[in-house]
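User: I'm curious whether this sequence folds into something compact or stays loose and floppy. Could you predict its structure so I can see for myself?
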Amino acid sequence: METISGDNKYHNKSLQACLEKERPGWKVEVKSRPEGSRGFQPVAKRWAVERSNAWHGRCRRNSKDYERRPDSGAAMITISHLHVMLRRLAPVDRPQFNYGTAA
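Assistant: Here's the prediction. I'll summarize afterward.
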């Protein structure tokens, strides 16, 4: 890992100083909205990461921190990502859910 993408929160000097001291080969690339834009604007790389995190959050076991060990947590992320990819490769037509009308 050489480049870390982040939003405006990671645009600070203490983080830069820490990275220069601890990880000299790493750099932080700050992604922000285009100047003059109003409302929601997806930012290219950051949007892909946030979208992937949302997909993993749909998996019930990943929605909370249930895992005790980091390697089992990483395995659950891998399994949930496999689930997402398999759904994309072989989609299933499901009827749209609607609540029944009151009698």
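Summary: DSSP finds four helices and two strands in the chain. Residues 70-89 form the longest helix (20 residues).
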